[in-house]
Amino acid sequence: MARRRSKSRVSTEGPKERKKCFVMCVRNDENPAALRLRKTYEVIPDGKAAANHLIRVVDELGEDYLYPENYFVTIKNSER
Question: Sheet containing 21-25: which strands, arranged edge to edge?
Fold first, then answer.
């Protein structure tokens, strides 16, 4: 189910830095080797993926993949 992002994509982010978002894995039925339960993962915003109920997360090797959004819960960032 996981899909790797093409390395040819160029970031469309402007000079301002985007706020990082993190999720915790709560389900890994299809690929337990790729996702660890209760592990925190960084999210890469992807509107097309979200429209299909998928979420793009970065793994331990720094690669991003698409997974079903119901595999994760959002971790709220606290402002300091």
Answer: 3-4, 64-68, 54-58, 40-44, 21-25, 72-75
Mind listing the pLDDT tens digit for each residue in 11-29? Answer: 445 545 667 899 999 999 8
Residues 56 and 65 sit within 8 Å (Cβ to Cβ): yes
Rounded CA separation 44/75 (Å): 14
What distance lies between CA 54 and its chain's CA centroid?
Answer: 9
pTM of this prediction? Answer: 0.71
Span 44-72, pLDDT tens digits: 999 999 999 999 999 877 899 999 999 99
Instruction: Please state which CATH class domain 19-75 belongs to.
Output: mainly beta
